TrEMBL record:
<keyword id="KW-1015">Disulfide bond</keyword>
<dbReference type="GO" id="GO:0004791">
    <property type="term" value="F:thioredoxin-disulfide reductase (NADPH) activity"/>
</dbReference>
<dbReference type="Pfam" id="PF07992">
    <property type="entry name" value="Pyr_redox_2"/>
</dbReference>
<keyword id="KW-0560">Oxidoreductase</keyword>
<dbReference type="InterPro" id="IPR036188">
    <property type="entry name" value="FAD/NAD-bd_sf"/>
</dbReference>
<dbReference type="InterPro" id="IPR008255">
    <property type="entry name" value="Pyr_nucl-diS_OxRdtase_2_AS"/>
</dbReference>
<dbReference type="InterPro" id="IPR023753">
    <property type="entry name" value="FAD/NAD-binding_dom"/>
</dbReference>
<keyword id="KW-0274">FAD</keyword>
<dbReference type="GO" id="GO:0005737">
    <property type="term" value="C:cytoplasm"/>
</dbReference>
<dbReference type="InterPro" id="IPR005982">
    <property type="entry name" value="Thioredox_Rdtase"/>
</dbReference>
<protein>
    <submittedName>
        <fullName>Thioredoxin reductase</fullName>
    </submittedName>
</protein>
<dbReference type="GO" id="GO:0019430">
    <property type="term" value="P:removal of superoxide radicals"/>
</dbReference>
<keyword id="KW-0285">Flavoprotein</keyword>
<feature type="domain" description="FAD/NAD(P)-binding">
    <location>
        <begin position="3"/>
        <end position="288"/>
    </location>
</feature>
<keyword id="KW-0676">Redox-active center</keyword>
<dbReference type="InterPro" id="IPR050097">
    <property type="entry name" value="Ferredoxin-NADP_redctase_2"/>
</dbReference>
């Protein structure tokens, strides 16, 4: 099967790339290893996306999918295993098929960074989670510890509190990195913050029962009884496909692009969180649109 553009990833960036490519008349395929939406499905609420005072991530994804689907082919649960460039064509091999394309847009995003502490792996799915909207309802009226200090961690803490969980936030510094409006909400909801502390161990029997915290300032340890630990300490770029293609990465492993979302490899573009621009929905959409427009024009003109 031949396409003009293959988009790898169906988060906000990938869906927007498909939208813009399809509307220009390009034959576009979007491949997604999971469900359409990617990490966008995990966002409890968005309050800074134009046109919406407040909207759930999964609702916005559903609206985007509904808009894009008539214009492009979307294949869910089909992971891309390799991309090779041969004879001016890209051969994209998935877990189910092989496809040819003239251009590729990488919108592979990131995955959750782990704490790498004792008990984390053992209790995944049994008290350790990385997605409040996925697992939060299992912990209503239970004690929850959210780990992190950025937007994601504070958003998760606010969401968990809103559905009836008993929430505390632990952060390794004495100041949050989250946006001010989120910090205000955290304070308004009386969500306690344990400052200058890191999780040293997660313990329990059949499920999580407690964590051991280490205070970096006082050098003291304390045990906090919890039923669940939600980890939101950042992301790791999913860059294997880019690396195998010879795409240039920065020192943190994110794909480097120019202002038109071109990479150093001809007819390979990148958009969204994989490029390490601000992790904002609107930024991902913008980059997806630019990548598709650039790919269309480059193919049309036969330019790099």
């Amino acid at each position: 099967m031949r396409y003009d553009i293959i988009v790898v990833g169906a988060g906000p960036a990938g869906l927007t790339a498909g939208l813009y490519g399809g509307r220009q008349g390009d034959n576009v395929l979007i491949l997604e290893k999971g469900r359409v939406g990617g990490k966008g499905l995990e966002i409890p609420y968005i309050e800074n996306y134009p046109g919406y005072k407040k909207v759930k991530g999964m609702v916005l994804i559903e609206k985007m999918k509904e808009q894009v689907s008539p214009l492009v082919d979307i294949k869910e649960l089909e992971e891309v295993k390799s991309i090779k460039h041969e004879n001016s064509k890209f051969i994209v091999t998935t877990t189910k098929n092989k496809y040819l394309s003239k251009a590729v847009i990488l919108a592979t995003g990131t995955t959750h960074r782990e704490l790498n502490v004792p008990g984390e792996k053992e209790f995944k799915g049994r008290g350790v989670s990385y997605c409040a909207i996925c697992d939060g309802p299992l912990y209503i009226n239970k004690n929850i510890l959210v780990v992190g200090g950025g937007n994601s961690a504070v958003q998760e803490a606010i969401y968990l509190k809103s559905i009836g969980c008993k929430v505390k936030l632990v952060h390794r510094r004495n100041k949050l990195r989250a946006e001010k409006y989120l910090q205000k909400k955290l304070k308004d909801l009386n969500i306690p913050v344990i400052w200058d502390s890191v999780v040293e161990k997660i313990r329990g029997n059949n499920s999580v029962e407690e964590v051991v915290l280490y205070n970096k300032k006082t050098k003291e340890k304390k045990i906090v009884e919890v039923d669940g630990v939600f980890i939101a300490i950042g992301e790791i770029p999913l860059n294997k496909l880019a690396r195998d293609l010879g795409v240039k990465l920065d020192k943190r492993g994110y794909v480097m692009t120019d202002e038109f979302q071109r990479t150093n490899v001809q007819h390979v573009y990148a958009a969204g969180d994989i490029t390490h621009t601000p992790n904002q929905w609107i930024v991902a959409c913008s980059e997806g649109a630019i990548a598709a427009l650039t790919a269309h024009n480059d193919l049309l003109r036969g330019q790099k």
